[in-house]
Amino acid sequence: MAIYKVDISNKDAKRDLLDLFIDRNIVLESPCGGKGICGKCKIKLISGDVNPITEKEIAFLREDEIKEGYRLACLTFGRGNVEVEIEEKEAKHKILSDGYMPDIEFNPIITKVLKKSEDLVVDNLDSYEDLLCTINKTNDLNLIGKMNKIVRNDEITAVYSGDDLIDIEDGNTVDKSFGVAIDIGTTTVVASLIDLKEGNEVGSDTAINPQKEYGLDVLTRIDFINRRENGLEILKNTIVDCLNKLIGNLCEEHKVERKNIYEICIGANTTMMHILLGISTETIGRSPYKPLFVNEKYINAKDMGINIAEGGKVYCLPGVSSYIGADIVAGVMVSNLKYTDKNVLFIDIGTNGEIVLAKKGKLASCSCAAGPAFEGMNISCGMRAAEGAIEEINISPEKITLKTIGNKKPVGICGSGILELISELWRNKLIGKTGRIKTAEDVLKSTESEVLASCIEDVDKKRRVVISREHNIYITQEDIRQVQLAKGAIASGFYSLLETLELSMDDLDEVIISGQFGKHLKISSLVGVGIIPKDLENKVTYIGNSSKTGALMCLTSKNVRKEIQQVATDIDYFELSTKDGYERLFTKCLNF
């Protein structure tokens, strides 16, 4: 626990504590963006003058927490000196960094060429700038200023991005050439250090996206930006700091200098990409939901505040629309969907469910708001995939068996565990087809198991299934509804695309599951809750973090870089909400 003191002036008395904490760089989890609907921004009041506890807070806090002085920061207003205690969470998170990598020709856009003094003849030149032009013409004043290196050294190394000279280095540094492939997800960030001379992946590092403290999903972050004058700047600086830290970690661990990292390639959804570049997200969050840009971008790293080589570049992969971003285009490249002669369904399962259907090279896409339930959020006992999270559950008439990440004491249920739990509840007849939790009497009658019947309980007229009484872990009716909404969104999305391209389930040759979360999902759970029809069970392939892999492909192959923009342009996007009969289809897909 950490203790913070905040001196609140009269002019700030109308601002809640969460808002004031943000100004002071005090990190506090707030998935809903301070709307008072998630109950996560708990603080313990030690001293100070604050408003009385609200009904909303009482609904989220336990009786013992209220007695101990716990409040929700987003609903607490103070005056004068206020002292609070905040829990510091340090659990190790389980983040996927790898994915399927197709065979590609290694020909990176970043190259180094050794130049020896005998190759650089100056006698017939009017100036040393003319000599620089013999290496490569440039208007970069920084490079012109480095011409003295040409004069005083027997050999220098010229660094190129394609045909453009981006740096001149003393001596022979040809063997020191690196790049970084990055996936910026709404929830997690993954960075891989790549040797651009040999093509090897040197190492990788991961982090939870620190923007989650300001909103769990893209919409709450857009709302945060809209509500705060400097909201965009806060979120941009937060992610840039995260990238610099990951790059620093990789450099330290693998004995690489930042000055020898010349390019970064980034895959991310459209909102994350706008925020990274400091570009307004306002048009993404309101009708007609159009982004300010989707095309690829090639930018000076120093202009973004990213600390690599002085002439280092950042390449941002292209996207398609507001909700089909560069991360999905990367997945399409990794899966070779543009050139396949098969019918392939590509699904990235996460906070936003993105789907691409390939019909022998024709590409159709849609996005559905799956919500954060699949990632363990907005669930009573839900949590991210960290130590102590229940990730596997087996229910039988005799007992309930749990497996946690790190084999630690259970503290909650992560997304994969929630999906498996609901699949198990359905298989063991504790819930009906509509998702309704059955009464203890009905469970006993249908299963003849007192163990299962004893799991059902009603608290404050709300029914729930207790998974572990010892650790007070359970799932409520509302939790199950959240998962139904998520699975209904994804299932209705790909049914809609099948109809659009005039295909049936039987026509599908393969289903590809992509993404940080998708890799951890058992096919039995996907089938059990109805996200994937049973007939497709044997056609499922997992490809892991295809966003980072696509960024890596762009980093190491000129051919991929040339191709990816056209592939993005060729992906047709369909808005589900405007499709006739979609609401009926969505409602139908809610059932198990």
From TrEMBL:
Pfam families: Fer2, RACo_C_ter, Raco_middle
PROSITE patterns found in the cross-reference section: 2FE2S_FER_2 (PS51085)
Residue ranges of every copy of the 2Fe-2S ferredoxin-type domain listed in the record: 1-90
Highest taxon in the source lineage: Bacteria
SUPFAM superfamilies: 2Fe-2S ferredoxin-like, Actin-like ATPase domain
CDD domains xref list: fer2
GO MF, one example: iron-sulfur cluster binding
UniProt cross-references to InterPro entries, sorted A to Z: 2Fe-2S_ferredoxin-like_sf, 2Fe-2S_ferredoxin-type, ATPase_NBD, Beta-grasp_dom_sf, Corrinoid_activation_enz, Raco-like_middle, Raco-like_middle_sf, RACo_C
Protein name: Uncharacterized 2Fe-2 and 4Fe-4S clusters-containing protein, contains DUF4445 domain
